[in-house]
Backbone:
């Protein structure tokens, strides 16, 4: 091994170790930042190590790509608001998969359009472009739905599952044929194309509430595509990083699916986002009890213990800073404020935590579902901000409800409940929520942010009086 | 697979195992940074893109490599920056705000 090759390999080994240490640092919020900075250093080492490779003879396109990528990546890293994080993550899965897929196609083309590709390499290349292609379009669709330039509601048509299954079968068939007979350029490129179509096809029927699962799954696919790239070009650091990413996405998908009471098989085969049968209970003759900001403020001012339950509505209204302001006032009055975070609240794993952390709320107060569910009984007020399905008692009691069996936050056990909601339209899943008709529940209608701001000024007056 | 496919399979399985062990311990609190972190890390596919773009094999590989380098660099730069931006917002109770995190 030449010195240069040795340096390259050493840089890859160092990068692999730093990546794993970086991920391990994420187990504790205090060490996380430093650990990830070390991982970034590992990345830099691996890049430098690659640039010294003797195969690389022409640096013009490399420099152009690095410059262009940095110019686009910097604003995507520094200026995207935290509320836009789900779509930001979705689009980054697309970029990752795009890189992996294009490397795979370049490799196939360079090796005589398959003429010089061994069966084993073809298997890796096939995986790479198959997973890569479906992740490209799938992530773009997810991005479009979250960014709202594509319809956020599930798009379904008759025979959809059959069409998707057929696409899968055709793609796998081509994949099998390619491994058997690598020198079949048409099969390779048709498989890429079908991969792109599958990506569209599996995300089309997904609604906003199912996004956390889809994003996690695409995360996993992007990782697997990277790992397959490593197999195809014989690069261990790619295999390791891809495996880490794949494992992470897989774990998150499992966590999310458990939190929605869906089986993992159900998710893997894209059967989520099934159309909601409108058989769920509809409230007849029940009336909700609206509350004025003044009364709500009074209630909050004298509360000893308040549990805030944030949901996607808080993210939409960008109300996290107002939440923090209100919590500060309640605490100043001697009350205690905690936050109950459902695993699938929002549009991606950990979405609410990031927003509340942005508002400078200490992470000790952000409680996971299992941790806080026992505390609702002692809570004077549960303040639900733009959350719906994750607090719907139908998940516990109504067998006909589409969300039956999903673990929920026990908001209905609190001594009193204030629900902040824009209007009485049912939540995303289109299901009526009994919680709103509960005797203990008062509804505070309006945009979450402006309602919270009103509450803040009212609570101030109560305190001042 | 360059005659080392079995070793590569070992690497994949063991790395997946390590990943599984480590990542199951990441609290739900940090799931969003976790996702952006793993995304940034898997942008290591940049090293493959660099070789495709720079080894002057043929025009197609060079151009595909160029686009791949661009896409992967976006994730490397954007991914690590945004992960850091998120992580610096998480603070325990009692510590006062040092930086003005996440100001629009």
Residues:
């Amino acid at each position: 091994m030449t010195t240069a090759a040795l340096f390259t390999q050493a840089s890859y080994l160092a990068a692999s170790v730093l990546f794993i240490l970086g991920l391990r640092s994420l187990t504790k919020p205090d060490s996380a930042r430093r650990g990830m900075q070390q991982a970034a250093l590992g990345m830099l080492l691996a890049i430098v190590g690659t640039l010294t490779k003797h195969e690389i003879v022409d640096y013009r396109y490399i420099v152009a790509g690095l410059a262009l990528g940095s110019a686009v990546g910097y604003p995507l890293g520094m200026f995207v608001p935290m509320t836009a994080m789900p779509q930001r993550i979705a689009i980054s899965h697309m970029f990752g998969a795009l890189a992996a897929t294009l490397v795979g196609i370049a490799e196939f083309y360079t090796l005589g359009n398959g003429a010089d590709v061994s069966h084993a390499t073809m298997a890796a290349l096939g995986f790479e472009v198959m997973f890569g292609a479906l992740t490209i379009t799938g992530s773009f669709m997810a991005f479009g739905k979250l960014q709202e330039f594509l319809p956020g509601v599930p798009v379904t048509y008759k025979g959809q599952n059959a069409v998707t299954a057929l696409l899968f079968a055709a793609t796998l068939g081509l994949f099998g044929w390619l491994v058997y007979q690598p020198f079949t350029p048409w099969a390779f490129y048709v498989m890429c194309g079908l991969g792109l179509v599958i990506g569209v096809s599996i995300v089309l029927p997904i609604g906003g509430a199912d996004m956390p699962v889809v994003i996690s799954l695409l995360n996993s696919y992007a990782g697997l595509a990277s790992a397959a790239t490593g197999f195809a070009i014989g690069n261990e650091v790619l295999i390791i990083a891809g495996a880490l990413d794949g494992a992470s996405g897989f774990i998150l998908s499992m966590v999310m699916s458990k939190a929605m009471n869906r089986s993992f098989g159900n998710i893997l085969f894209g059967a989520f986002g099934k159309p909601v049968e409108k058989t769920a209970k509809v409230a007849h003759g029940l009336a909700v009890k609206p509350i004025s900001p003044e009364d709500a403020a009074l209630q909050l001012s004298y509360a000893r213990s308040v549990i805030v339950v944030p949901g996607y509505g808080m993210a939409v209204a960008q109300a996290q800073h107002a939440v923090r302001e209100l919590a500060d006032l309640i605490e100043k009055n001697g009350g205690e404020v905690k936050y109950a975070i459902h695993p699938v609240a929002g549009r991606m794993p950990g979405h609410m935590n990031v927003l509340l952390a942005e508002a400078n709320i200490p992470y000790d107060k952000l409680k996971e579902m299992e941790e806080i569910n026992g505390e609702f009984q002692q809570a004077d007020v549960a303040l639900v901000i733009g959350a719906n399905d994750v607090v719907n008692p139908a998940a516990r009691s109504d067998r006909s409800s589409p969300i039956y069996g999903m673990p929920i936050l026990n908001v209905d056990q609190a001594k009193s409940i204030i629900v902040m909601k824009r209007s009485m339209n049912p939540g995303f899943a289109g299901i009526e929520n009994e919680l709103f008709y509960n005797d203990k529940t008062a509804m505070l209608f309006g945009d979450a942010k402006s309602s919270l701001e009103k509450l803040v000024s009212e609570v101030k007056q109560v305190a001042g009086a | 697979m360059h005659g080392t496919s079995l070793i590569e399979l070992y690497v994949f399985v063991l790395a997946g195992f390590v990943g599984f062990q480590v990542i199951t311990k990441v609290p739900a609190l940090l799931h969003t940074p976790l996702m952006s972190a793993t995304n940034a890390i898997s942008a290591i596919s940049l090293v493959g893109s660099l070789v495709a773009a720079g080894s002057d094999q043929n025009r197609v590989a060079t151009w595909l490599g160029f686009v791949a380098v661009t896409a992967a660099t976006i994730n490397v730069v954007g991914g690590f920056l945004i992960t850091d931006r998120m992580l610096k917002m998480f603070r325990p109770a009692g510590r006062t705000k040092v930086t003005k995190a996440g100001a629009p």
Notes: The domain at 293-464 of chain A is CATH 3.40.50.1220 (Rossmann fold). Chain A touches chain B through 119 residues (CB under 8 Å). The radius of gyration of chain A is 25 Å. The beta strands of chain A are 305-310, 336-341, 366-368, 381-385, 416-421, 441-445.
